[in-house]
Specification:
The chain is α/β, with parallel strands linked by helices and 308 residues long. The protein has ten helices and 14 strands. The strands form three sheets. Strands 6-7-8-3-9-10 form a six-stranded mixed beta sheet, with helices on both faces. It has a four-stranded antiparallel beta sheet with strand order 2-1-4-5.
C-alpha cells in the first residue's frame, strides 16, 4: 500500500540562515497515529506547516495521497485537517457558526447531521449556541478540532493538541483520537507530553535541531533502545559491593539498602538468573526484587543527548 504522505529530503532554511528542517524523509501510512516528539525549536511545527502548505520548503518534495503539495495544493489541502497550537478562534461567533463556516470554506455541501454528530463526539453539542469567548480553554481546543474535522478530512494534524489542558480533558482527547483512527483518519500529532505518545501512538518520530533522528513503532523503540533494571532490596545495609560481583556493574543505592543491575535486552550478557545466583553466592540476602523498564521519556532524553 502506498503511503498517504510521502516526504523526501525536505529542507527549510529561513532568510536568516536558520535551518529549521534538514533533509527530512518520511512515509506515513494511511490510518496510523504518528507522534512527533522534540524540544521547542526542534522543527515539529515547521514540518507540519510545510506539509499543509503554510510554509514553503527550500528543497525536497511532499506528496499527499499521491498529489504534490505545491502543484496540487487545493486537492491536497482538501483532505487535510489542521489543529494549530495557538487558540486562533474569534470571540463573538458561536460554536455552530464557527464550525459550519469552516466546512463552507472547503466548498463542502451542507451536512447538519454530520456537524451535529461531530459536536456530540467532542462534547460540544450542548454548547453549540454559546459564544466562543464564554468557553474554557479546553472547550476552545475542542472547537479547533471540530473546525479541522468539519470538512471530513482523511488526514488530521494536531500541533500540541493538549497544551494547557487538564489531565481529565487530555484523556478525553486521547479517546477522540482513537475514535478518529478507527474511522480511518490518519493522525499526526506533535507533543511535549511523553505519556501522550506512549498512550496513543502507533509510531514515534523524534526530531531535534531540524533532523529526524528516528521513526520506529512504539513497541520496537522500547524494545531496541530501552533498558531494563533488576532492583534487589537487601535485608541488611552494605557499604560496598563485593568484588566477586564487579563483572555485573551493579549500582549500590546511596543508603546501601539495595543494588541495581541494568541490562540491555538486545545485547548478550549475564542473564537475570546468573546475577541473582551470584549475588546469593556473595552472601547478600535480599527481601524483595522488581524489574523496571525505561520509559519513552528516558529514551527520548538519551537520544537528544547523543546528538547534542
Amino acid at each position: 500500500m502506498n503511503p498517504i504522505i510521502s516526504i523526501d529530503n525536505l529542507c527549510k532554511t529561513y532568510d536568516t540562515g536558520f535551518e529549521a528542517l534538514k533533509n527530512i524523509s518520511l512515509d506515513i501510512k494511511e490510518g496510523e497515529i504518528l507522534a512527533l516528539l522534540g524540544p521547542n525549536g526542534a522543527g515539529k511545527t515547521t514540518l507540519i506547516s510545510a506539509i499543509c502548505g503554510i510554509v514553503s520548503p527550500s528543497a525536497g518534495t511532499v506528496t499527499v495521497a499521491g498529489k504534490d503539495i505545491i502543484n496540487d495544493f487545493r486537492q491536497t489541502r482538501e483532505i487535510i485537517g489542521l489543529v494549530p497550537q495557538e487558540l486562533t478562534i474569534g470571540a463573538f461567533e458561536t460554536v455552530w457558526s464557527t464550525v459550519n463556516f469552516s466546512r463552507g470554506l472547503f466548498g463542502c455541501k451542507k451536512n447538519e447531521a454530520y456537524l451535529e454528530q461531530l459536536l456530540k463526539d467532542l462534547s460540544l453539542f450542548d454548547k453549540k449556541n454559546d459564544e466562543l469567548r464564554a468557553l474554557s480553554g479546553g472547550m476552545k481546543r475542542r472547537v479547533l478540532i471540530a473546525k479541522a474535522l468539519s470538512h471530513e478530512p482523511k488526514i488530521l494534524f494536531l500541533d500540541e493538541p493538549t497544551a494547557g489542558v487538564d489531565v481529565e480533558l487530555r484523556k478525553d482527547m486521547w479517546a477522540i483520537v482513537r475514535k478518529l483512527r478507527a474511522s480511518g483518519v490518519t493522525i499526526i500529532l506533535t507533543t511535549h507530553y511523553i505519556e501522550e505518545a506512549e498512550e496513543i501512538a502507533d509510531r514515534v518520530g523524534i526530531i531535534n535541531n531540524g533532523e529526524l533522528l528516528l521513526v520506529e513503532t512504539k513497541d520496537h523503540l522500547m524494545a531496541s533502545l530501552g533498558k531494563k533494571q533488576l532492583i534487589l532490596e537487601l535485608n541488611e545495609v552494605i557499604e560496598t559491593i563485593p568484588e566477586s560481583l564487579t563483572q555485573f556493574n551493579l549500582e549500590l543505592s546511596p543508603k546501601g539498602s539495595s543494588v541495581t543491575y541494568t541490562y540491555d535486552t538486545t545485547e548478550e550478557g549475564a542473564n537475570i538468573a546468573d546475577v541473582i545466583h551470584s549475588i546469593s553466592e556473595a552472601g547478600l540476602v535480599f527481601s524483595d526484587l522488581k524489574i523496571s523498564q525505561s520509559s519513552l521519556e528516558d529514551i527520548f532524553v538519551d537520544l537528544v543527548k547523543e546528538v547534542a
